[in-house]
Amino acid sequence: MKDQELYDIFHSYHPEMSSEEDFMARLNEQMNAIDKKRIPSLWERTRQRHFLLWAASIAATIAVGLFLFMPSKGNDSGEADLYHARSDYQTMLSMTQSFPTFEETVAEIEQSGQQLQMAIAEMKE
């Protein structure tokens, strides 16, 4: 075929066009059909994620609760009897069951600093 013949074929073709309202209505129907197929799957995935997050949070809450409220086996007298430890070790074991407060820690640091200053002053003399 020659170029002119192709040109005539393509330019002479004028298909019937439906009205804009019909076209838009059909397009909206197709888009709604796609949305109806797609939205439940998105909803289902979102629901599954929420369920997994909910289950994980409950499991974490139970784990933290068990950790906080379970009685500790700690350093009881049975352990001390096994080692036949000296009295200062026994004192240390009893101290490890409770942690000092912030004020107690600061006071201990200040006392250590004062002892260090006194030791340095003695060395200078």
Pick out its properties.
mainly alpha
Write up what this structure looks like.
This protein has 125 residues and is an all-alpha fold. The chain folds into 2 domains: 18-69, no CATH class; 85-125. Helices cover 79% and strands 0% of the residues. The protein has 5 helices and no strands. It has helices spanning 3-12, 20-69, 77-83, 87-95, 102-124.
* Shape call: elongated
Number of domains: 2
Main sheet specs: none
Average residue pLDDT: 76
The DSSP helix count reads 5
Quick recap:
The chain is an all-alpha fold. The protein folds into two domains: 18-69, no CATH class; 85-125. It is built from five helices and no strands.
Q: Which SSEs are present, and which pair or pack?
A:
Layout: H1 3-12, H2 20-69, H3 77-83, H4 87-95, H5 102-124
